[in-house]
Write the structure tokens for this entry.
Amino acid sequence: MNKDAIDARLAPCGLHCGKCFAFADGEIRRLSRELRTALGGFDIYAKRFAGMLEEPLFEKYPDFERFLDYLASNACGGCRKEPCRLFRGCKVRSCSSRRGVDYCFRCDEFPCTHTGFDEHLYRRFVAINHRMREEGVERYYDEIKDLPRY
Ligand code: SF4
Ligand code: SF4
């Protein structure tokens, strides 16, 4: 994969937008849409199966369906295209753009303390950027591209 294609999937902080549930071109959204299509009008059957099979889980189907619709409908273009819909306090996107760095590990201030991330995310941010610096972006991406993000 070339640098532009990798950059479209990796945010400047290093998080993998490509595996985010909200990513428009991501696997989670695509598979959710496929599952929604495959299930068709299962809501009617879920009610019937709840009585027939005495399986209480079928009663939860409307909640599952709502959640599936949610996963299927999100369509974020990724951090390089628009502000993050999840980490609303993120300051990395605007900061990296102002400083003209494609990834934080290339910034003189890395690891800075004004990312806007919580403690958990900050630890990931630091670890990811250290790995990218050691291995190079292409090799790092190759290692993580098929791994779940969560
Ligand atoms: S910018 Fe945020 S919401 Fe959008 S794909 Fe990346 S992590 Fe997900
Ligand atoms: S100052 Fe911090 S957030 Fe901004 S580009 Fe540098 S490392 Fe990233």
User: Anything to note?
Assistant: DSSP finds seven helices and no strands in the chain.
